[in-house]
């Protein structure tokens, strides 16, 4: 009887040992897998803090050398009215490469309103057309006037 009892207790011991090893295997293996995937889990010292750095806001209406950088338009009275109304659908280049007088600008605007969904500009239309005629006047046709009364200067090397 004593022997049988002994045997039983040996089996129990072995069983606990196996259970222990199995547990160790599962926990250790799990830990190892976790560690492999998160290698810095034990790195308590260099806790990294995520600091959100707001991007330096660039002034999108920056003027450099008298030019509105974003659109290339000349900085003059009415600039922002033109920027806000005339650069939404197409580039400002389309505006500046067309040099027109007041009537033709008004006609172009009317055409865009009738065919291209351009909105009613109200009082801004005058500001816009004045800006365009003043800063992008129609190119003079024909020959320029002959130069007279010129002061020549020596070129230096
Ligand atoms: C709602 C959209 C829209 C707005 C805003 C707009 N346009 Fe246009 N514009 C167009 C379209 C579309 C065309 C045709 C583009 C093309 O032919 O590729 C055009 C063409 C033009 C042309 C060329 C016309 C031609 O005969 O070829 C000029 C100049 C022009 N626009 C000036 C302006 C000016 C000045 C303003 C501000 C008052 C303005 N646009 C605002 C849509 C717009």
What features would you highlight for this structure?
about 5% strand, mainly alpha, about 50% helix, 3 strands, about 160 residues, Cytochrome Bc1 Complex, Chain D, domain 2, binds heme C, three-stranded antiparallel β-sheet
Plain-language structure description:
The protein has a three-stranded antiparallel beta sheet with strand order 1-2-3. Among the domains are: 11-40; 63-135, Cytochrome c-like domain (Cytochrome Bc1 Complex, Chain D, domain 2). It has 157 residues and is mainly α. The chain is elongated, with a radius of gyration of 40 Å. The chain has five helices and three strands. Helix content is 48%, strand content 4%. The model has no long low-confidence stretch (mean pLDDT 87). The termini are far apart. The chain has helices at residues 2-37, 79-86, 92-96, 102-115, 124-135; strands spanning 63-64, 67-68, 73-74. The structure holds heme C. Heme C binds next to helix 2, helix 3 and helix 4. The site of heme C has 16 residues, from helix 2, helix 3 and helix 4.
